[in-house]
Each structure stands twice: as C-alpha cells, then as structure tokens.
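Loading example: each entry is read as three labelled lines plus one structure line.
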Amino acid sequence: MKTDLWLWTLVTVALLLLSGCGGSTAQAESTPGDQRAIQNKGSDTLVNLALAWAEAYREVDPSVSIAVTGGGSGTGIAALINGTVDIANASRQMKENEYEAASANGIEAVEFTVAIDALAIVVNLENPVSELTIDQLADIYTGRITNWKEVGGNDAPIVLLSRETNSGTHVYFLEEVVRKRDSDNKDIFAPQTLLMPSSVGITSEVRRNPNAIGYDGLGYVDTSHEKTIAVAIDADAPFVLPTVANGADGSYPISRDLYMYTAGQPTDAIATYLAWILGPGGQRIVAELGFVPLPEN
Amino acid sequence: MNRQQTNRFAVAVITSVAILVVVPIVLVILFVLYNGIGVINWEFISTAPRNGMREGGIWPALLGTIFLTFGTAIISFPLAIGAAIYLSEYAADNRMTRMVRLAIVNLAGIPSIVYGLFGLGAFVLFMQFGTSILAGSLTLGILTLPVVISTAEEAISSVPQQFRTVSLSLGATRWQTIRHQVLPHALPGILTGVILGLGRAAGETAPILFTVAAFYLPDLPQSIFDQTMALPYHLYVISTQVPGMPLDIQYGTALVLLLIVLSLTLVATFVRTSMRRRREW
Amino acid sequence: MTTNPSVITPAVGQKEGQRIPIGEWLIENLIRLAGLSTIVIVVLIFLFLVREGGPAFLDIPLRQLFGSRWYPIEGIFGLLPLLVGSLIVTVGAVTIAVPLGLICAIYLGEIAPTWQREILKPLIEMLAGIPSIVLGFLGWVVLAPLIQNAGAATGLTAFTGAIILAYMSLPTIISISEDALYAVPKEYRDGALAIGATQWQTIWRVVLPAARSGIVIAVMLGIGRAIGETMAVMMVTGNAANIPTLSSGLIFEPVRTMTATIAAEMGEVAQGSLHYNTLFGIGIVLFVITFAINSLAGRIVGTRGARRTGGKL
C-alpha cells in the first residue's frame, strides 16, 4: 500500500506540473511580436547595454518584456538566420554570406546602428608602455613581437588576450588592427592568444596580470583599474586615447558602430522599442554605460 | 632503514597524503561558505536580479533549477526504475543483457557536453522543442539515467531471494511479487539513487548551455516550452560576463548551488545508511 | 557473469500456458522496453552525432583536419591543438590524481580505523558532488591568481586545469581503487603477516600487485572522467588553441580542450554550417574515446559488480 501512495503521489505531481505549467501547446516557433517576450540575442559587447535598455524599457512600457542573451555577435546573427530571435545584437556588420543564408530561410535582415563604441587597448596599471601604433599592435597580436621590451616596456613575455572567435569585437579587431584594414591580408591571431569568454574576462585578467594586453569596448573599461593605451594609425600620427569624445569626433582610430538586426522591417512592439533605443531615452543610457551615443541628427 | 622504520615511514606518508587530499575538500566548502554567507538572506533567494544583475537576488535562476530538477525526475525516474527492475528481475544472462549493461556503463561515461550536443540536435532542433525546459529536462533526464539505474538495481537485487520465492509459492504472479514484495523493500535504495541523480542534474552546466539556459529573462517561465535561467549557468554568467559584479554575490550564488547539491547528496547518503541499519536481513 | 539468481522464471508459481492478466502483460513489457531503451539511447546519441558531425569528416580533407591551427571563422579546422590540449590536461590530472587517489584508497582500506573511515568516505562522496562550475569558479578566482603569483606568465594554464581536474577525478579513482583493494582476499594479507611482513610490506608486495587490474580500471575511468570535463577547464585553461612547446614548460602554457571548444563555440554557429558540423565532429571524437575507455573498463567492472551485489541468500 505504501508503494501505491508513492506512485500515485508522483503521478499526480507530474500531471499537475505538466498541466499547470501552461495550457499552451507547442508554440516553439510562434511568430515574434505576440505575448512572448522579445528575444534579443547576440553581441557580448552589447549585452549589458541591451540589458540596461530592456530594464529601462520596462518602465516605459511594462507590457513589453525583453529577454536578453549574450553569446557573441556570431551567435545572434546565427539565431537571426535560424529564425529563433527577434533582434540580433552585433558589434560587427553582417557578412554577404550571412545575408544570403538568411534570405535562403526567407528572412531579410535589416540593419540599425544603435551606438558607437571606441575599442580600447588595455594593459595592467603597472605596465610602463602607454603608446602603440597599429603596426605594433598587429605585430604583437600575430606573435611577431613577443616581449614587452620590444615596444619599450619591461623584459617580460606578452600575454595576449582576445575575445572568442564568435565575438564581433574579435572579428572587428582582426580586420581593423591585425590585418590593418587590408582585405588581402590573411594574418590571424597568434595561436597562443587566450580566448576569454567575455569582455569582463579580459579586464579581469588584465587587472591581475602585469604581462597581459587585451582589447575591450570602452563601456567595459574602468581606467581606475586598467590602463588604456593611446593608439596612433602610424608612427607619424598623434597618439590618441580612447574616450567618448575621441570616439565621437573620430580622432580615435579604432571606433566602430554597434548594430541591431531584425528579421525584415520591424513592426509593432519591436519597432517601438527600436525607435526608443534610437531616441533620447535609449541614447542617454548609451552614454551612461560608457559607449558613444549616436551623433545628433 | 630496516623494515620497521620503512613501515613507520610509509604509513606516515600515506596518512599525510590522505589528509592532504581530504583537507582541501573541507577547505573548499568552508571557503565558499565564508565568502558567500554574507549575502544570503531571504531577499537574495526570493527576488530577481536588478541593475544588470549586480544587485538583487537569484530567484529566477533558483526556480529554473528547481523546475529542471523536477523535469529530470519525471523523465528519468520511470525509465531508470523500469530498467533497473528489468535488469534484476527479468533479464536472463544473454547477449542482450550484456549489451544493456554495456550501454549503461557507456551512458555513465559520456561527457556532459556531448549530452548537450545530443540535446541540441535531437530535442531543440530535430523535435523542434526549441530551447526550453522540456529540452533541458529531457537532456538532463538521460544524463542521470546511469546513476539512478545502478543504484536502483543494486537495491532491488539485494532484496533476499526468499521474499520472491515465498510470494510465488503462494500463487502470486511475477509482477505482483515485484510490486508488493520486492519494490517496497528496495524503495529506500531506489530513492537514494534518484536523489543522487537529482543532485548531479542540479549542478550540471554543459548540458543546459544550448538546450535551455538564458542569460537574463525578464519573466518567470510560464510553460515547459519556455527558456529559463538556471543556477549553474547563472554562476557562470555572473563570474565571467558581468562587469562590476560584486564578488560576494558570486560567492553567494556558488554557495546556494553548493548547498543544494550537497544537501541532496547528504540526504541520499543518509537514506542509504539508515536503510542499511534498519534492514531486517 | 553468473545467472542472476533473482530472476524469476515463469515456471515457478505459474502454470505453463496460464494467461497473464492484460495489465500485467503491459507492465512487464513496459519494463522490458525501459531496459532496452538504454541501448536505444546510446545508439541514438551516436547516430545524432554522426548525422550532424559526419559532414565535417567528409568535407574537410584529413590533412587539414589534423592541422595545427584552429581558427574556424576563417575555415581553418585543425583539430590537433584541441586534441593536444585535452591530452595534456588529462595526463596532468591523472598524474596528480592516481598517486594521490591510490594512496588515499590504501589509507581508507588498510590503515584507517573505522571511525575515520566513517568521516572520510562521506567527505569524498561530497567532493564527487561538488558541481564542476563551482570548482571552475574557485579555480578562476583563487587558483589562477596563485599560479600567476608563483611566476607563470599567466595563471590560466593547462596546469591549473590539471589540478582542478585531478580533484574532480579523485572520488572516482579512490572508490574504484578501494573496491579493488577490498576484493583482495583476506588470506593474502594474513599469509603475509604470518610470515612476519610489516603492514607496509604487505600492502606494497602483496595487496597492490593482487589489485593491479582493478587499479588499472580506476586509472582508466579517471582518465575518462578528466577528458570529458567541460566547465571547470573552460574557466581556467585560457582557451588558447595552442600546442605548447617543451621549452616553455609544456604544462604551464594555456591550452584549449575539445570540450571547452564545443561549449564556447556551439552557441554561435549557424545550423548546418561546416563549423557546426565540425563541433559535432569533435563530439564524435569525445564519444569514441570515452566509449572505448568505458567499454574496456566496464567489461571487467561488470563481473566485479555482479560479485558485489551481495545480500542474497
């Protein structure tokens, strides 16, 4: 009899759980824009900004909820192509083949520039090096330069930090710095580059490792804990520190746009949300988080 | 050194090594306890994270873990008990049985990330459940099968043969015997297995990475087709992805997860030992 | 394996040809189904892995697949750094864990008084229960800075991973070694002591050699455990797809394991892309390795296990 009671209790609980947890049947592929939350996924550079936007938008319109996930620009774009996300965050632009893959699935991706990001080069506070040219950065990150003394620092090995390959920031850095914007350049990161799971991973390691060098969106940099390097396009150009001002006026050589992609022209809740992001409400948050707001126009 | 000295020396080394191994275990638990206990209060457990998850609590992740654990139990419990009964009561010593045992041993050894891949390919994509509590529970359920099966099988097999023979000689059918004579006595052992399996499932991160876990959800899940946050993944996220994350909240989250898993393990051990003591045979 | 004595043959208590009530027939077959489902699940897992990962082996020439650079976004799919990464971390972990675990097992089985055993065994079981993410978290927050301060270029190295993995494999190695030692008949020890051997001599010359095969199993299963771990290594090994050189201290360099690669990159890939296939391909490699290890070990553990299910009259 004891067994009976056990079995029946378990069965009842199971049934209650399965039924009480929602009468909706399979809606794994429901169309975006209905009662489900807006699915917002992608760039880790953008994730905290996206989160801040989502939280702030709750105040503006409590009926709309937005689910934010990171995973990297590549993740977000892949999700957009697969049709499983409403808004994809990306810190790089979609490539030709990605647009094609989306079209093949019947999705026409639409691009929105939502903020600007100055990409800072960070080193440990104790590191004496303060200035580097793009060429030096390229040499460092491809492994041609391996010791800090080669760029005016201590006699210590350079520990290379980077984001994972799915990161838009990684791809941007590859194209803009490692390959110096030359599309025929096929250099890639040195094999000993540590691929950190996120921007936070990079700053954490930089803070405690005097040999480390990394790159991060300005929004993740805290100059009281990390040292930013002034970058020059070449040996003759001025060395410019990454600041919001320098990012906005274009004097800092490694700045990029941050994007949100939607599946087709956005409608209803998604459209309103995007409009808010591009407006003063959203852009104020951009500045608060250390990114560069879009120019007024 | 003569033999006696060698002996003393060897025993001393062995003892110190054993201490060396065990002490860090205690230290680890105490360390997490010490650093995390400060943030644990009712608010931490029952509220959602705020301010980019730098403040507030862990409730959605905790609830998600509870849901997933329930789901795992529902999926693995019947299958595992059935398989265990099969192995100890019905399986003859033939090739089929050997293959079943081989399968179970292998299931136990498959890396958890491979379960995650399978969950992604089979449940999220092929069966189109999407990243959902359903997909996650199915994946975790399969992952915990071997643990539950082996413990349950041992419990069932250790019920003395007499119980069965007497019951059958009184005219009961095979299933009646199992249901009324064998299972009730094996129940504590089966329970141990289930609880151990749940403890394992609650702490797993890799299988839920692509099958259910979300970085941040504004609402609690409403159905089994929704995503959910989960404690192990939450710990991963706040320790590697959130800037300015206070260290004590990280430790606090680790502590909650540790406490849940360890208490499940301890309960299972307790059930097992008290069952052994109370056994009449 | 001897015939399982608890299997009830229908001849006992039921006459030949007696009809079984339909409910019971249903339940018995459901039970059989449950038992067979284990085989089905393993086969399914393998099939899915092959289905999604097969294209990688078909479309990428083998020489490229075993190339020494892993850079998937440019179509460079060399698995060698990942294999080496997993190998180094696993070997490191096993090198640390086997001696420690074996000694612990010896202590528990041969030397420790009962009251100590009652405390230590649950403790070791608790270690087995600690989630890998918690150990990985501690490795990231505590262990890596320690190793950094000890002079390494960075604290995120294969060595850091090996230490954490060693601790995670310890419970497996300890409990199986313990079983192996326990299985050595008491007469062996008594005989040795009777001719005047010390405790250590008995252990070293008699018990250990007799338990040799069981210990080998422990090592194998420990390897299997270590090679399959994901989260802990992902947080502390640096994830650099690098083949360490002897000159730089081999184990003190960052590495990237197969498991961490899948976990870090799977979220990003578009389904059906070559990168997606390759990640499943890595899954196949992992599956095959652990299948081989576990089948080999399981074949012997199986007989041992049958002997262990005592309690029958």
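Chain C touches chain B through 109 residues (CB under 8 Å).
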